[in-house]
Amino acid sequence: MKILAIGSHPDDIEVGCGGTLKKYAQKGDEIYYLIMTMGEQGGDPQVRKKEQEEAARIMGVKKIFWGGLEDTKIDSRLSTIQKVESVIKEVKPVFTFTHYYNDTHQDHRHLSNAVISAARYAKNVLFYEGPTTQDFSPTIFSDIEKVLDIKIALVKAHASQVMRTNIAGISIEDIVLSTANFRGTLARVKYAEGFVPLRVFINISEE
From CA 4, how far away is CA 61, in angstroms rounded? Predict the structure, then answer.
């Protein structure tokens, strides 16, 4: 099975759905990334690219697609939709993951809306959350207790970003742990990732 995760910047995907993706990877599914910018507003773009490549190695990503857009200037116009659509057509994913559309970061918000259009014929599309997501009420959950340590390693691979939370004394690791615990509580497990579905098909065998 092919899985496509789409993010605006290096580290968005790992923070939002790294545990779930790792579970897919562990059972042999193919993971693909589409990252729209190199995150140059958050640090040296070449450093961020190398960090993303290391995180992808830990994840076992089959291929990273780079969108080539400018950090903080992603829009949801036709050109962005077409970039996303071209990758969806190439990968043909069974599941597509991306940002939730209600987000205070304009890149996340605009990319989410572009993916909604680009993935209009895709069967399973799920939104993940990040530290700037608003009004997120997940109804689909993934138990990540057994891969939590790997998710933390994935996040820490983005070493230049660990303390760039704009919250004094709080690291991205702290945020990931507290979010996983909170979503786990909602799902009645210890640690979870939560998702809001755009569209999900129930797989019922016809045999």
Answer: 10
Closest CA to 8 of 107, 114, 156, 78: 107
Tokens of 168: 């004094």
* Helix and strand numbers, DSSP H then E, in the chain: 6, 7
Q: What are the percentages of helix, strand and coil residues in the chain, rounded to 5?
A: 45, 20, 35
Whole-angstrom distance, CA of residue 74 vs CA of residue 186 = 33
What is the per-residue pLDDT across 10-64, written as a single tens digit (0 to 9) for each? 999 999 999 999 999 999 999 999 999 999 999 999 999 999 999 999 999 999 9
Q: Which residue has the tokens 């992808």?
A: 56
pTM over 0.70: yes
DSSP 49-116: HHHHHHHHHHHT-SEEEE--PPTT----SHHHHHHHHHHHHHH--SEEEEE-S-BSSHHHHHHHHHHH
Mean pLDDT of the 78-102 span: 98
